[in-house]
Design brief:
Oligomer: single chain
Strand content: under 5%
Radius of gyration: 30 Å
Largest sheet: none
C-alpha cells in the first residue's frame, strides 16, 4: 500500500516537473519569438531609412542640377506688374521648388519615419533627418535670395566697387548651395555625413547581426 502511494507521489512529481519544463519552454519560445520579431522590425526600419536616404541624395542632386530644361520654373505664380526680364530671373530661381515638388513623396516618406526611428534607435538618432531638412531649407533660402535680390540686382543696381565685390562674394556662396558645383561639394558632403551617421547608428543600435543583414541587402 505504501509502495503504491509512493509510486503515485513520484508520478505526480514527475508530472509537475514535466508541466514546469513545458511552461518554461513555452515562455522561452515566446521570449525568443518576441526578440526575433522586434529584431526583424528594427532591421526592416533600418533598411528602409537607409534606402530612403540614399535615394534622397540622388534626388537632391537632381534638384541642384545646374542644367535647366525648357519650361522649367514656368509654374510660378507671376505678380501683376512683373516685367519679362524679372519673370525670367524669378523663374530660374523657382526651378528648385518645381523639382522638389516632383519628388515630394520621397521626402515625406523619409520624414514620416523619423519618430519611429527615434523610438527604436534612441532620441539622438534624428540627426540624419535634421541634416536633410537643413539642406533643403538652405536650398530654398538660396533660391529666394538669388531670385529676389542677387540675380535681380546684378548689373542693374548701382554699386560701389566695395559693394559690388561683397555682392559677388555673397551671390557665389548662395549659388554653391543652389547648384551642385561638383560631387564633393559642401552640400553633398553634409548628406554623406547624414548617411554615415545613419549607418553608425544602425551598427551600434542592436548587434552585429543587424548590421551584417543590412550590408548584405544594401
Amino acid at each position: 500500500m505504501q509502495a503504491v502511494r509512493l509510486q503515485k507521489n513520484m508520478s505526480n512529481i514527475l508530472q509537475n516537473i514535466a508541466i514546469i519544463i513545458a511552461s518554461l519552454t513555452a515562455v522561452y519560445g515566446i521570449i525568443s519569438w518576441r526578440r526575433e520579431h522586434i529584431g526583424k522590425r528594427k532591421i526592416d526600419l533600418a533598411e528602409e531609412v537607409l534606402c530612403s536616404i540614399y535615394e534622397l541624395k540622388d534626388v537632391i542632386r537632381s534638384i541642384r542640377n545646374p542644367f535647366g530644361y525648357v519650361g522649367e520654373g514656368s509654374t510660378r505664380k507671376r505678380a501683376e506688374y512683373e516685367l519679362k526680364e524679372e519673370s525670367s530671373i524669378l523663374d530660374s530661381a523657382y526651378v528648385v521648388y518645381e523639382r522638389y515638388d516632383k519628388h515630394k513623396d520621397v521626402f515625406n516618406n523619409f520624414y514620416k519615419m523619423k519618430y519611429r526611428y527615434m523610438a527604436n534607435f534612441g532620441k539622438n538618432s534624428d540627426e540624419p533627418f535634421k541634416i536633410i531638412n537643413r539642406v533643403i531649407n538652405e536650398i530654398f533660402s538660396a533660391a529666394h535670395m538669388l531670385g529676389k535680390v542677387y540675380w535681380k540686382n546684378q548689373g542693374r543696381k548701382p554699386m560701389s566697387d566695395e559693394e559690388f565685390e561683397k555682392h559677388i562674394d555673397e551671390m557665389q556662396k548662395l549659388e554653391k548651395v543652389f547648384w551642385e558645383i561638383n560631387e564633393n561639394d559642401d552640400v553633398n558632403k553634409r548628406i554623406d555625413t547624414a548617411i554615415h551617421i545613419c549607418e553608425e547608428i544602425c551598427k551600434s543600435a542592436n548587434n552585429l547581426g543587424l548590421w551584417n543583414f543590412i550590408k548584405k541587402y544594401r
